[in-house]
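Structure, all two chains, one model.
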Amino acid sequence: MSDQLLEIENLRIALDGNPDQQVVKGLNLSIRPGQTTCLVGESGSGKSLTALATMGLLPKVLQTIEGSIKIKGEEVLTASPGRLRTLRATAMSMIFQEPMTALNPVARVGQQIEEVLEFHSDMSQGARKKRTLEMMEAVHLPDVEKMYRSFPHQLSGGQRQRIMIAMALIMRPQLLIADEPTTALDVTTQAQILSLIRELREQQGTAVLFITHDMGVVSEIADDVTVLKLGEVMETQQVEQLLRHPQTDYTRDLLRSVPSQVPRPPSPAASDEVVLRTEDLCKTYGGTGLIRKGREVRAAQDVNLTLTHGRTLGIVGESGSGKSTVARCIMRLIDPTSGKIMVGDEDIAVMKQSDLKARRKKFQIVFQDPMRSLNPRREIGESIIEGPLNFGVSRAEAMERARDLLELVGLPGSAIDRFPHQFSGGQRQRVAIARALAMDPDILVADEAVSALDVSVQAQVLDLLADLQERFGLGILFITHDLGVAAQICDEVMVMQTGKVIEYGPAGEVLGNPKQDYTKALIAAAPGRHWDFANFRPFSEAPASAATPANQS
Amino acid sequence: MTDQTNTAPGPAHPTALTKVREVVFSSPIALIATVLVTIIVLAAIFAPVVSPHDPVRLTPSERLKPPSELYWLGTDAYGRDLVSRIIYGGRISLVVGVGAAVFAVLSGLFLGLMAGYIRWLDAVLMRMVDGLMAIPNILLAIAIVSLWGAGLWTVLIAITIPEVPRVVRLVRSVVLSAREEPYVEAAIAAGSSTFLIMRRHLLPNTIAPLIIQGTYICASAILVEAILSFLGAGINPETPSWGNIMAEGRIYFQINPGIVLWPGLVVSVTILAINLLGDAVRDALDPRMAKRGIDR
């Protein structure tokens, strides 16, 4: 028996077992006890499938056609379902991206953890509960007695992920498979979960197979890294080696695409023409009720912002900070409770929808999820010309322009009669941008417009936005949770927390020299902030002339 | 890194014809259901051609005959040929079935779109719908028929109205989930009017579930029509309809049980075939129902 805990050899997974449709192509991977291996790749690289195959959880349509997966020398692929169930709790276990959907919403979390013990041990009820509470303390949940009786919806995202980790580790498996466990979490929560995983690995000697797309996370947690591309291993290296000396072009490109935390120099103001200004913009949910006042939620409070011609204002914050509320108020997709929204010199905050329609030309939006922001039943051309048709442009003319716009955003004009499902995520986001541009807007609101994209595609879309901004003098309001992205594209940054503006100023100031504790905490939590990925070195080794890291505090 | 490469021209959107073919040949059951429904529909349309006898001519000398070469399934109490009456009865049943499905779907679609998109209307409309749903279908239908008197139109309306609430709920739920989609918000941002948003973005989402619901309504309407006729609250008793034939045959059950059993069998087979067809359409339009999943 070798000293490896997990050994994957020449793993091939194919759609319907068809060797011509391989999605994982001869993957080799091994993990020693107590080691953390990161499996990195973009969507479609097969990283999650590898994890599912290891757990014996591949969906029916996918079949392993070759290779072997051994845990502690025992073959997983040929194990009986009963044996697999035992292995899954005692030898390896898995945590998932979205802790809300991975937990049963109608059972108390304590019982869900205890259930694992019920199936896999012969502990008495008292001992089970004691062990569960210990485990909940080990993952640093507060007030565990109370937490034990809580339902998943009563916990925060980070707490739910802690419950998942407790559940996964309670039988002390030697291998924890973590499939993008922090992707759905806020950056500060992510930092806590990462440190928890590190801590548990040290205490319990658990090996971790960590799947992620985020190089920042990799630099924080990995011992070894395996880079995957379309089902093939590009390279496997020790983490520092990989970040310093990537062997393949693919890895190099991947690292170069990681947005740097260093704010870019602000673009020269083309003019100081203010295109958008809000004054004391507020949005309150609830608080009304016929008999009794409901609970008020102040989603946005006294937001004052100014966006000038040709510049980018970033609104950054964690979930629930109110950044999207502000964007949706400005688009008048929701009605603000009070305050002014000045587009040019007109206040659109209280304008009737019928009057608003004529003004909608001026401000357009690009949404986060390019899968859902285009009507799947309509050809993309139809989606692009919808706006212009509403404003009386003739169909032929609108189509002609749509073709030009497609080319402008880097797609062939001939693609105009295709349907959204025929495009990749990045291409769809380009289509969505073309649709917004079809109206010749002065203001473009990008609501997490690159968050759903792979990092290399994200870099391309950001470049496209910058290019279009320069060409058309667009004022861009860029909503993001990713400080790296904000640093890369914004001239000015506004930091929001629970509906309030915490800090607002030039990007270099806010991100480089933050005044507020919250902003400092956000920056400190950003994974990989010590690494200058694009130059393959830590910031601390940067030549003195180059830009210094955002903040090392 | 290959974001800008050309996508291979994917499969073109299937035309209506290929879609129909796909449904029909999706499974042996779908094929059998289609064949059965086609036979029943053709028989009803060409009733004057395919019926061996006149369905309403009284021949007192031939009363309650058992099946013979002349009268394949025998005759009823007035000496009318049972086969011909069942074939002609199919006309009423199909008109009622298809009519009720079309009317229920159209009115339900209209009301559902309104309820789903116009918030203040929602509360009002849905309470009325809830009220209607609280009354059993047949009871409501009988009440309507007794109010306005029997007749094809009254029966059709009486069968349609109780089916509408279900369609309204279905359409409303589709609209409620679709209206939250970013592409609807993008349309709002593009300045599209409420009417355009409904037509372009919301209506197409309702079509698949409505086709499926329509087949079920059709089957259920045929059954309700037969029940109404059987209870004597349906079409004029002289007109052959499956329910009427059974109602008249009831008292002669011991002499010629075929008068009740054969139309009953035809009703069952028709409803079964239409329901199976509905299932086939559902599976074809929503493959998630049929496949996928981990089976451990």
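The first strand of chain A starts at residue 6 and ends at 15.
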